From TrEMBL:
<feature type="domain" description="ABC transmembrane type-1">
    <location>
        <begin position="85"/>
        <end position="287"/>
    </location>
</feature>
<keyword id="KW-0472">Membrane</keyword>
<comment type="similarity">
    <text>Belongs to the binding-protein-dependent transport system permease family.</text>
</comment>
<keyword id="KW-0813">Transport</keyword>
<keyword id="KW-1133">Transmembrane helix</keyword>
<keyword id="KW-0812">Transmembrane</keyword>
<dbReference type="InterPro" id="IPR035906">
    <property type="entry name" value="MetI-like_sf"/>
</dbReference>
<feature type="transmembrane region" description="Helical">
    <location>
        <begin position="201"/>
        <end position="228"/>
    </location>
</feature>
<dbReference type="Pfam" id="PF00528">
    <property type="entry name" value="BPD_transp_1"/>
</dbReference>
<feature type="transmembrane region" description="Helical">
    <location>
        <begin position="84"/>
        <end position="109"/>
    </location>
</feature>
<feature type="transmembrane region" description="Helical">
    <location>
        <begin position="121"/>
        <end position="142"/>
    </location>
</feature>
<feature type="transmembrane region" description="Helical">
    <location>
        <begin position="268"/>
        <end position="287"/>
    </location>
</feature>
<dbReference type="InterPro" id="IPR000515">
    <property type="entry name" value="MetI-like"/>
</dbReference>
<feature type="transmembrane region" description="Helical">
    <location>
        <begin position="21"/>
        <end position="43"/>
    </location>
</feature>
<dbReference type="GO" id="GO:0055085">
    <property type="term" value="P:transmembrane transport"/>
</dbReference>
<feature type="transmembrane region" description="Helical">
    <location>
        <begin position="154"/>
        <end position="180"/>
    </location>
</feature>
<keyword id="KW-1003">Cell membrane</keyword>
Length: 302
């Protein structure tokens, strides 16, 4: 009798056969194509010439007449989209700064065992992970504080996340205690220890949590829809919903451009979509390397 071929083990598991590898490769290729091809189409349509967009019926996969930036010039010429872009930038920058300040200080306080009310406060944070206050109570609170139709209504109610606080706290707990003890022996105050030692040693988790907050604020949609009645205060995501999702036609008065210079509606819509996506795509690669060290380390040690 012939001996059976010996299986090659990789990490304790049998190595997949050639047929299985081919099936996996084909499956992954199809999934990637389903994600990448529409994205390429959005970029190409926003950069294609008006004549080519009209000839293609509204969707261009690869522009053949060269690149045309008229759609971007139109939406960035001082109209509604430009104002919404500035509003989104303000909400993202200010909101992320406030959220990081509150999250890091609260996470630090909860990580220090001598803090007054440490355990009750930690219990409140954990309870907030399980119970949501609900839409109507949240709206009533925003209304009572006089924040309706104000950008602060989009920033303040979500300025702190219990999950992010737990992650930051766990990371602070995992830092070497000897470093903080040495600082206290040298006479450093709690604030000085936090600012000059705790934060510099926690750049990874701060960067990741900052990205979480930044993406959340940049994509803020539902809060703005609830609390903002003045369309001049709408962030970019609400403008995206109006002109792209709902299909409302964009006029010259909305773009601040001459009517005869307007490119096709599809090009303008795709350009708005790209402007709403590109900032996060530009920031993410610089912070992605911190994910494993920041979030996973904090979660495991917590």
């Amino acid at each position: 009798m012939s001996a059976k071929p010996r299986q090659v083990l990789v990490g304790g598991m049998p190595m997949p056969g050639r047929a299985e590898s081919v099936v996996k490769a084909v499956f992954l290729t199809v999934i990637c194509a389903l994600v990448i091809v529409p994205f390429i189409g959005v970029i190409s349509t926003s950069l294609a010439s008006p004549d080519e967009v009209i000839r293609a019926g509204g969707f261009v996969l690869f522009p053949k007449d060269g690149l045309d930036f008229s759609a971007y010039r139109s939406i960035l010429s001082g109209g509604t989209v430009t104002e919404a872009l500035l509003v989104s930038a303000f909400i993202t920058l200010v909101g992320t700064a406030i959220a990081l300040t509150l999250t890091c200080t609260l996470g630090w306080a909860l990580s220090r065992r001598g803090t007054v009310g440490n355990k009750p406060l930690l219990l409140l944070v954990l309870i907030s992970l399980l119970f949501n206050p609900g839409l109507i109570p949240t709206y009533l609170v925003v209304q009572q504080f006089g924040l309706l139709d104000s950008l602060w209504a989009v920033i303040l109610p979500v300025s702190i996340s219990a999950f992010n606080v737990i992650v930051v706290r766990a990371y602070f707990i995992g830092l070497p205690a000897a470093v903080f003890d040495s600082a206290q022996i040298d006479g450093a105050s709690e604030w000085r220890t936090f600012w000059h030692i705790g934060l510099p040693l926690s750049k990874a988790v701060v960067a990741v949590v900052g990205l979480f907050y930044g993406v959340s604020y940049w994509n803020s949609f539902f809060g703005a829809l609830l609390y903002l009645n003045d369309s001049s205060k709408w962030p970019l995501q609400l403008v995206l919903r109006t002109y792209v999702v709902n299909g409302v036609e964009i006029g010259a008065q909305d773009l601040g451009a001459a009517s005869e210079a307007l490119p096709p509606q599809t090009s303008i819509q795709m350009a708005i979509l790209m402007i709403s996506v590109v900032p996060i795509l530009c920031v993410y690669p610089f912070i992605q390397r911190h994910f494993a060290k920041g979030v996973l380390t904090g979660a495991v040690k917590g």
